[in-house]
Structures are given as C-alpha cells and as structure tokens.
Write a structure and sequence with these properties.
The complex is a heterodimer.
Chain A: H1 2-22, H2 26-46, H3 50-75, H4 88-110, H5 112-115, H6 133-142, H7 145-167
Helix pairs in contact in A: 1-2, 2-3
Chain B: H1 4-23, H2 27-51, H3 56-86
Helix pairs in contact in B: 1-2, 2-3
The chains are: A mainly alpha, B mainly alpha.
Amino acid sequence: MSGVVFFLVAILAVASALGLVLRRNPIHGALFLVVNLGCVAVMYLLLGAEFLALAQVIIYAGAIMVLFVFAIMVLIPGKEETGPDPLRLQRLLALPLGALLLVEIALILQSSVFTAAPHPGVQPGYAAGAGGIQSVGRLLLRDYLLPFEVTSVLLLAALVGVLALAKRKAG
Amino acid sequence: MGLQPYLILAACLFAIGLFGVLTRRNAIGILLGIELMLNAVNINLVAFARYAADPAGLIFTLFTISITVAEVALGLAIVILIFRVRLTVEADHLDLLKG
C-alpha cells in the first residue's frame, strides 16, 4: 500500500519539478513548486514524520510560497525570459552537467555503503509516534534547546536585515 | 519500503533543481530552483532519521526549514532592491561586480 502511494507521489513530485524547471513563466514555476512541496509533505508522512509534514505545509506551502508569488507579482509583468540568450552555450552545458551529477549520485547509491547494511524497515529503537508533535517537541526543548534558541536569533537577524534592505532608498 | 527509493527520489529532485538553477535567467527562478534542492536534502535527512532510528534527523530538517525561511526572505528582499536600482531581475544583466 505505502509502496503504491510512494511511487504515485514520487512521479508527481518529479513531474512538478520538471514543470518548474521547464516552464518559462515564473508564476507557473511557483505553482509547480507548491505541488512539489505537497508531494514532499506526503513523503514525510510516509516516513512517519507527521510534525515535519505539518511544518512543511504551513511554512513552505503557506508562508514561503506566498512570499514568492507576491515577489513575482511585483517584479515580473507577464512574460519574461524572452529574446536572444547571451549565454546559450552555458545553458546547453547545464543539462549534461545535471545528468552527470545524477549519475554520480546513482553510483554512490549503488555502492556498498547503502547496500551492505540491510534495512529491514523501522529499527526497534524507533518507537511509534517518534515523528509526532510530542516527541519532536520534547527533543527540541530538551536535547536541542540551544540550537533552537539560536534559530530564533537567526530569524530575528533576518527580520532586521529585511527591514533594513526594504527601507533603503533607491539609487 | 526500503531506504533506497527515497534516496533515488531525492537525487532526482536535487539534479532537477540544479538544472533549474543553472538554466533560469531571472533571479526568482534561481531561488525557486534552490528551494527544490533544499527539499531534496530534507527528504534525505528524514529518510536517514527513519532508517537509522535516530530522531536527530527530524530536528536537522526542522532547522533546515527555518534557515530556508530566513534565506528566502533575505533573498527576495535583495532581489526587490536590485529591481528598484537596476529595473531588471535577469541574473545575466546583474554584472556590477564584474571587473
């Protein structure tokens, strides 16, 4: 059952990623990214990480995508990326480069690092509900309290930085 | 379900995202490609957390997501500022730092 769901969602994820890359219109790209992020959230659910799936939908598909769509609406009036391409050779080179990277990763995945150790599914130490809100929250506020607090400082710094950038006068 | 399918999916998404970053001409398209790559990494982290029975991977993913939020907010602010100054977001035209 979970295998069928995995393959359907994986196909949808790869298709939406391809759509994001191949469509010229950035607003279509942003909408494809929403589909892709939803697929990744389903992957998290399949992996038993319920809290991360929720965070994915709320933060990525909610907040970040609204930001993206807003920026695209402000900056790009209609069609973009037309006209002759000054770096055509460079872009043609991108496809073989990306394919090369994929082949390299595939070779690594085939290597003994991942195939030697058997993966019989869930390990015994991984209790049911380990990806739920309770256990993640307990982990976050007990074992990883300092990084958690530092993250809030990071977000504050980003907030101040964005405000400083946005208030600057043009020219 | 083994670990392998998740890693292969993440590798595919990462390669597609890299292709997008290399080929897109406007800065927002490049940022979208970076989002794709970060998500592929997150899938890897969660899959490893599940199959190594170590919930630390979930915490890493959580931090990745929050850092991505900061990155996107700052990146888009910079892009909007660049648009105000140069009236374009095409990455190829932004060569002020070129010698």
